[in-house]
TrEMBL record:
Protein name (database record): 4'-phosphopantetheinyl transferase
The species this protein was found in: Pelosinus fermentans JBW45
GO cellular component: enterobactin synthetase complex; plasma membrane
InterPro entries found in the cross-reference section: 4-PPantetheinyl_Trfase_dom, 4-PPantetheinyl_Trfase_dom_sf, 4PPT_N, Enbac_synth_compD-like
All copies of domain 4'-phosphopantetheinyl transferase N-terminal, residue ranges: 23-83
Keyword line: Magnesium, Metal-binding, Transferase
Positions bound to Mg(2+): D94, I95, E96
Length: 207
């Protein structure tokens, strides 16, 4: 994890600086920089140093060969996680600030009928629940999409909250490439940390 206090563009690999548009506004410069710093720190834990994390055609981070990972930022905080492919086929993570002012109709864009039922079932935590579902789906997107090179929409997966385990039990509603069939089950961990929702998942290695 990195925060805006760690912001220093000199920490970027020179090739990464080329990825950041010279027109980028300060907020974007900070999030890109601390996201890359978090990613370098994660890579160093698996003994990979000085690797420039460039961007693919869908804006996905391009990891070293044999490595999967994900980056997320929200305001002044950035997170990254990586794993070697022997340990995980894909990694997803996401951090979102709980913003009580988000338009409520987002629920129709993000949630299946069942998920919307769970969100609306809460008396005073509807927004928090909506952001939990949103964040978990962003994590799922980051884990599945790069490995299958297929864009996952919000209605390609459904999540059911498991309160005891603090995680969502997810199921694909559609086939995502040859390895992940409709009905494929996965889990997305979810924690509230202060005003943030943090979600994370990993896909078991492909044999
Ligand atoms: C791409 C997307 C997942 C980014 O999430 P976000 O919450 O807006 O922003 P975050 O800060 O969490 O993540 C941004 C980082 O995601 C990564 N990212 C961007 N596009 C990506 C992609 N196609 N695949 C994987 N990672 C991607 C990048 O590292 C980016 O940071 P960077 O530009 O500084 O490198 C989101 O904008 C999106 O398009 N979502 C719609 C698809 C979806 O969620 N479907 C639901 C599936 S069930």
């Amino acid at each position: 994890m990195k925060t805006s206090d760690d912001y220093n563009e000199l920490m970027l690999h020179p090739e990464e600086l080329g990825v950041l548009s010279f027109k980028a506004v300060p907020k974007r410069r900070i999030e890109f920089c601390i996201g890359r710093a978090a990613a370098h720190s994660a890579l160093s834990k698996i003994n990979i140093k000085n690797f420039p994390i460039l961007k693919g055609v869908h804006n996905e981070p391009l990891w070293p060969k044999g490595v999967v990972g994900a980056i997320s930022h929200s305001g002044e905080v950035a997170l990254a996680a990586v794993a070697r492919k022997e340990k995980a086929a894909g990694i997803g993570l996401d951090i979102e600030r709980i913003d009580e002012t988000i338009p409520k109709d987002i629920i129709k864009v993000v949630c299946t009928i069942r998920e919307a039922g769970w969100v609306n079932d809460s008396k005073d935590r509807k927004i928090e629940r909506l952001i939990m579902v949103f964040s978990a789906k962003e994590s799922a997107f980051k884990a599945f999409s790069p490995i299958m090179n297929q864009f996952l929409t919000y209605f390609d997966a459904e999540l059911i909250w498991d309160e005891d385990a603090s995680r969502f039990r997810g199921k694909l509603l559609t086939k995502v490439g040859p390895d992940y069939i409709e009905g494929y089950a996965f889990e997305v961990g979810c924690r509230r940390i202060g005003q943030y929702i943090f979600t994370f998942m990993s896909l078991p290695p492909l044999l």
